[in-house]
Amino acid sequence: MVASVNTVAFQGIEVRPVDVQVQISGGLPAFVIVGLPDKTVAESKERVRAALHALGLALPAKHLTVNLAPADLGKEGSHYDLPIALGLLAAMDVIPKNELRDYLVLGELSLDAGIRAVTGVLPAAMHAAVNDNRLICPEACGGEAAWAGAVDILAPRDLLQLINHMSGTQVLSKPEARLAPATGRRSPDLSAVKGQETAKRALEIAAAGGHNMLMIGPPGSGKSMLASCLPGILPPLSPKEALEVSMIHSLAGTLPEGGLIQERPFRDPHHSASLPALIGGGHRVKPGEISLAHHGVLFLDELPEFARATLESLRQPMETGQAVVARVNQHVTYPARFQLIAAMNPCRCGHLGDPALECTKAPRCGGDYQSKISGPLMDRIDLHVDVPAVSVQDLGADGGETSAQVAARVALARETQRARYGGQPYALNSHAEGSVLEDIMALEADARDLLNKVFDSARFSARSYYRVLRVARTIADLDSGAAPVRKTHVAEALSYRRVALS
């Protein structure tokens, strides 16, 4: 006798269907799980045995075989507990087999037959909706799964509730879609930053166009505070973006209380973070910080203190918007369309250029320290901003515009870009392809002359050229959405790029 239950396996953000086949046959009593299970899946038999025992059910004294097909696909995670248990119950004729035919099942079992939350429910629900399946998931994940749309969802609290529903003695209500509660993270208001008008302007441009930005300045000049102000001037996530971000966090197990994320991610890993922690990887290939920052901000403070190999691993994701983790037996891709905001001191002591405070190794120490950041990585950063020390006069002065005032201009500029790139898979100038960029730039003649002159006299790469164009386009969008990109826009864009003249 064989019973079959549908579930899924995860390879990155990709969902792969898995058929859980349960057979009860004669022979010596045994409980075997085959189909490349990892340690967590292999332990499912003990959790299933205990959960059925809590309901007063004993496994038959026969040979029990659970096959997870396809057999050549590795199976990881505790979400196989519930489909295995339901397959056994169907094979034992406790529940009718035909009731499970159209369901996709995920859930971890407690020893008391409770159903615990698992990761990846949202992408699994999206997969179920596409394939016209119904879904069974833990009660704690019901609000997350409900965002998949019209899919029929059962979200029981324990195994007994589910058995009663299948038997017709109890009816489970469909869970309601929930929003994740606010994180409680409050961004400082931009008006609290004293002085640093150039840096504030650059931050506004970065927010408007999704550009990468590097701030260089002595300790205490306000670099970290400026970065923490960025979420307060960014527009909220669109519904599509919120769904993408929530799917990644669902797989990572960081989706709060099973609801949809509303706030743009802001990730600020410590400089001791390893390469797998930043890019993704590990034994089960979890998404890294750059994927958790998808459609949000990745803030790297003390940039040169990160391991060089870790920083160099950012180069490809910054270009492609994807984190690709390749292993001998696994090849996983996670979305990673993040905005990089970095900060660093000009040298190890932090006071290069100040005769009263700089160390005796200046200026050589500055070159040695900044050379930890490779040229190709610097080439991928659109805005390079010097953040000088704040004077006493600045500390006593008014902070200027509030975050709300700047956010209004940023939202208007982003709306202009969204309308411009309506038929493209992107909506920001920083992501525009070179061919599309040339078509929409509308450079005035003197603006193009200036750009060509600087390009000829400076050591510009082709990448730098197009990144300057993108920044200039964003500046024009902030300037009441000016159709032609003028000389002033190009000049300002060039001022944010470190140019070495020959």
Task: Calculate the terminal CA-CA distance, rounded to whole Å.
Answer: 80 Å
> Would you tell me the structural class of the helices and strands?
alpha/beta
What is the CATH domain class of the largest domain?
A: Alpha Beta
What quaternary form is this?
A: single chain
The biggest beta sheet reads: 5 strands, parallel
**CATH-scheme architecture of the largest domain:** 3-Layer(aba) Sandwich
CATH superfamily of the largest domain, by name, is: P-loop containing nucleotide triphosphate hydrolases
Question: Approximately what portion of the residues adopt beta-strand conformation?
Answer: 15-25%
The shape, in one word, is elongated
Mean pLDDT: 90
Gyration radius, rounded: 27 Å
Q: Helical element count?
A: 21
| Total number of distinct structural domains | 3
The count of strands amounts to 18
Fraction of helical residues: 25-40%
- The CATH topology of the largest domain: Rossmann fold
Q: What strand order characterises the main sheet?
A: 11-14-17-10-18
Q: Are there runs of 5+ residues with pLDDT below 50, and where?
A: none
